[in-house]
Design goal:
Blueprint lengths: L13 H9 L4 H10 L2 E2 H7 L5 H13 L3 E6 L5 E6 L1 H24 L16
Antiparallel strand pairs: 1-3, 2-3
Helix pairs in contact: 2-5
Organism: Chryseolinea soli
Keywords: DNA-binding, Transcription, Transcription regulation
Protein name: Transcriptional regulator
Length: 126
């Protein structure tokens, strides 16, 4: 007979917990791009300025491990992988948009140029 033992978890600050899951340089932008539609790896790589393939792969794995995105691998030639937001990931979209509004105001105050370049179907930044 197997006995289930509940692991003792320490209390955490909710803000720390949130930023552990979505913190980092690229995760917010990845989530934003996926909020627009399901995307292939190559689309994300092209749309995320300044990210290396290694960092993109790492961030995608972390977001998948945290249950914020799903990865669907198609068994075909050439191989195709698509990423989409989970319901938990979709819940974050309005908060990312609010952070963007706040950040743009801060950037204007400090004279920091705001990235406005867009492709046909992808905002490069929120």
């Amino acid at each position: 007979m197997k006995t289930e033992v509940k692991e003792m978890m320490m209390e955490q600050c909710s803000v720390d917990y949130a930023f552990q899951r979505i913190g980092g340089k690229y995760k917010g932008r990845i989530l934003w791009h996926l909020s627009q539609k399901t995307r292939r790896y190559g689309e994300l790589r092209k749309g995320l300025i300044g990210i290396t393939p290694k960092m993109l792969t790492q961030a995608l794995r972390e977001l998948e491990d945290d249950g914020l995105i799903t990865r669907h691998e198609y068994i075909e030639l050439p191989p195709r992988v698509e990423y989409t937001l989970t319901p938990d990931g979709r819940e974050l979209v309005p908060f990312i948009a609010l952070l963007s509004v706040w950040a743009k105001g801060q950037m204007r105050k400090r004279g920091v140029p705001i990235l406005t370049k867009h492709s046909e179907d992808m905002d490069y930044c929120v």
